[in-house]
Amino acid sequence: MRIPRTPRRAARVAVLDPAGAVFMFRYDNEEVGVHWALPGGGLDPGESPLAAAEREVREETGWTDIEVPGTTLCWWEHDFTRAGVPVRQHEQIFLAHGPRRDPFGDLAAAHAADRILRWRWWSPDELSAATEPLWPPQLPGLLAAVRENGAPTSPVDLGYVPNGAAVDGP
Fold first, then answer.
1. What sign has the CA pseudo-torsion 122, 117, 109, 73?
2. How far apart are CA 55 and CA 151, in angstroms?
3. What would the mean pLDDT of 49-60 be, rounded to a whole number?
4. Could you tell me which InterPro entries the record lists for this protein (predicted)?
């Protein structure tokens, strides 16, 4: 049976440290289970994807100095249930750079509401060897291309990615 899905727009940020590690959160979702995703979330009414990306990084990490230059790494769509509502989420993922550090501030309530279990920095090798699902699954290949070629001149459109999809590259 097909589940009716509510469209949802979201923005996320791949924050890279100087060594190329990426910051990610470990979520537990009622529909898809445990997975790792970049900081970010849904757009507020009238909010641009870039403004949402900057706001979400501040809200989820406490970092107020991360500048999101507007470089889009990729777009993708995927399904999951958010707050009891099945959604088809269209995400725009931006690329940013910052220092390697811990999140700070009083984030416990926000993390609990979003079902964020923990966070960590992933080195390129660790990301490529991940055994838990990554959102998007193509993230290791996308970030490898950034390390080799610099920021993309045009975003990669990953299209719709079903849950549990195995991916060999971007």
1. positive
2. 22
3. 97
4. Nudix_hydrolase, NUDIX_hydrolase-like_dom_sf, NUDIX_hydrolase_CS, NUDIX_hydrolase_dom
What are the φ/ψ torsions at residue 32 (nearest 5 degrees)?
-105, -10
Reduce the DSSP state of residue 51 to 3 states and report it.
helix
What ranges do the domains of the chain cover? Answer: 6-160
| DSSP for 111-138, written as a single string | HHHTTEEEEEEE-HHHHHT--S-EESTT
Name the pTM for this structure: 0.94
Residues 34/133, Cβ–Cβ less than 8 Å: yes
92-135 per-position pLDDT tens digit: 999 999 999 999 999 999 898 888 999 999 999 999 999 999 99
- Give Cα separations from 44 to 10, 60, 108, 122 (angstroms): 9, 15, 22, 29
CATH homologous superfamily of 6-160 equals Nucleoside Triphosphate Pyrophosphohydrolase (3.90.79.10)
Nearest alpha carbon to residue 118 among 135, 102, 140: 102
What is the Cβ-side half-sphere exposure of residue 55, based on CA atoms within 13 angstroms? 12
Q: Outline where DSSP puts E strands in 30-168.
A: 33-37, 40-42, 72-82, 85-97, 116-122, 134-135, 156-160
